[in-house]
Amino acid sequence: MDAELKNSILKTGTTILGIVCKDGVVMASDRQITLGHTAHNKTFRKTNEVNDYLVISWAGQVSDAQRLSKLVAAELKLKGLRSKSRPTVRQSASLTASIAFSNIRQPSMIPSIVSTLIGGFNEDGTTEFYNIGIDGSIIKIEDYDASGSGSTFVLGLLERQYKKGLTVREGIELAKEALKSSTQRDTASGYGIDIFTITKEGIKKVVSQEIIPEYKDSE
Question: What's the pLDDT tens digit per position in 157-211?
Fold first, then answer.
């Protein structure tokens, strides 16, 4: 059952990725929403700030992902108010994993299928990056990761080009190249890219580009 659930994420049309750098984390995604064989939406943002210290990317069913994002944001705010301290990135990832675990195990006509990447910075300035599986598993990522239908193309490129200790600036360029590979070959990824950086200085959206098809005369 676990393998079946994890394999089902490959059926979701999207590309999300994260790259761990020596001075922070880079997270990126495309903008296409696929409905069957149709590009249902071309401008959807799959990577977003949850709050002022956390970024989430997701691949999967749109409604489930939107609900998960809202629940995580609300629960983290409540957790902070109760404890009078800001949750760590690890605690935030654990909370997300717990919600995902509960969702997938509730009887439903349509099971919740969302794969999530989480990056953030702690109060001491350290940055962390996690993969939350659709089954509620949680894995701390020390180099790079990707999910969605375009991940096959992305992981192949990152495997060859990622180098331990690269800078955030280098990570941004690598993320661009990875998304270009995905949007060129994966039929369910495309129409735009969004890239965020997470450092001790905070969260910044550094790339927001639209991919517009152009017609050219053949020579």
Answer: 999 999 999 999 999 999 999 888 877 665 556 567 899 999 999 999 998 877 6
Using a cut of 0.85, tell me whether the model's pTM lies above it.
Answer: no
Q: Which residues pair with 33 in a beta bridge?
A: 41
CA dist., res. 102 & res. 107, Å (int): 10
Catalytic residues: 14
CATH class belonging to 2-210: alpha beta
Which of these, 45, 204, 194, 29, lies nearest to 121 by C-alpha position? 204
164 membership: H or E segment, kind and range: none
Of 16, 25, 13, 31, nearest in space to 199 by CA = 25
Please state the domain extents for the chain.
2-210
Q: At what angle do helices 62-83 and 89-104 cross, to 10 degrees?
A: 130
Beta bridge partners of 18: 27, 145
For 139, the token pair is: 């894995």
- Which residues, given as ranges, of the chain have pLDDT below 70? 1-13, 33-44, 103-112, 184-191, 211-215, 219
